[in-house]
Amino acid sequence: MNIVEVKHLKVWDANTDKVIIHNSSFQVKQGSCLAIVGESGSGKSVTCRSIMRLNKPWIRLSGTILFKGEDLNQLSEQEMRRRRGKNLCMILQNGMSAFDPSCVIGVHIRETLQTHFNWNNRESERKIISAMESVMLKNPQEILNQYPHQLSGGMLQRIMIALALVLEPDLIIADEPTTALDTISQYEVVEQLIRLRERMGCSMLFISHDLGVVQKIADEVMVMKDGAIVESGDIRSVFSKPEHTYTQYLVTTRLELSNHFRKLMQEGT
Ligand SMILES: Nc1ncnc2c1ncn2[C@@H]1O[C@H](COP(=O)(O)OP(=O)(O)OP(=O)(O)O)[C@@H](O)[C@H]1O
């Protein structure tokens, strides 16, 4: 069964008439992780934001986006807001942009949880603290009293993962969740994302430039170039026998690069 079915998605900028995504169709299977790879500007983030309905107002789309059989484009903004967080959860590249800079983390989390659950403050806090401990965040109580700018990028990513653990969404969209992090934090965040999937059995859409990470976390991969899907399929077959020239280029350059990097890391430890 597919949790997400995107059919003939076309996205364009109404200000310039520039087409950003050309007639793209793909599915995310229930419980599976689909990675989207491709060069900068190929349309990975716009595709994900189209599912979340978080594109800027001048970015228009046509086609169908079914989530659990329901056409997301037919929902009112209020209905869509209810789906965000509880059903569809997004983990962004930059943790700073995900949290309200004007309030401490605890307030942001409490408000998010109260939008979706009938929990009182103490119950919300108990659940988030337990989730934060499970993603190896030390002194969670202290963290809840801090502002986003007082925390590192890796900590903010882990807080987002902890929040996802509490929200238990059906689909997690992770848009370059490790790009802004140092190597150690990247490794830890990937490990936590893998554990999150194992524990919740949720489906995932995972965008990354790092083919090594993609190989570790994803079941299927879709390769985008200039707003079009050029190749897709099971991760092992795509990476071992890439058919499209662009995928061949990506696999030879990027996979070699990350393998070399991993080897260096292992030698260093
Ligand atoms: N708000 C916007 N207004 C107009 N055009 C946009 C907007 N956001 C994205 N685009 C255009 O859409 C295209 C795809 O952008 P997108 O951010 O999806 O690429 P990407 O593959 O995610 O790249 P990256 O890996 O750098 O994040 C780009 O050409 C970009 O200029």
3D structure, described in words:
α4 crosses α5 (121-134) and α5 packs across α7 (153-167). The chain has 269 residues and is of the alpha/beta class. The model has no long low-confidence stretch (mean pLDDT 89). It is globular and about 55 Å long. It is built from eleven helices and ten strands. The strands form two sheets. A six-stranded mixed sheet has the order 6-7-8-3-9-10, sandwiched between helices. It has helices at 44-52, 77-86, 95-98, 105-116, 121-134, 140-144, 153-167, 183-200, 211-217, 235-240, 245-268; strands spanning 2-13, 18-29, 33-38, 59-67, 70-71, 88-91, 171-175, 203-207, 220-225, 228-234. It starts with a strand and ends with a helix. It has one domain (2-99, 171-268): Rossmann fold. Bound molecules: adenosine-5'-triphosphate (ATP).
Secondary structure layout:
Blueprint lengths: L1 E12 L4 E12 L3 E6 L5 H9 L6 E9 L2 E2 L5 H10 L1 E4 L3 H4 L6 H12 L4 H14 L5 H5 L8 H15 L3 E5 L7 H18 L2 E5 L3 H7 L2 E6 L2 E7 H6 L4 H24 L1
Parallel strand pairs: 3-8, 3-9, 6-7, 7-8
Antiparallel strand pairs: 1-2, 1-4, 4-5, 9-10
Helix pairs in contact: 4-5, 5-7, 7-8
Bound molecules: adenosine-5'-triphosphate.
Adenosine-5'-triphosphate binds next to helix 1.
InterPro entries: AAA+_ATPase, ABC_Ni/Peptide_Import, ABC_transporter-like_ATP-bd, ABC_transporter-like_CS, P-loop_NTPase
GO molecular function: ATP binding; ATP hydrolysis activity
Membrane topology: Peripheral membrane protein
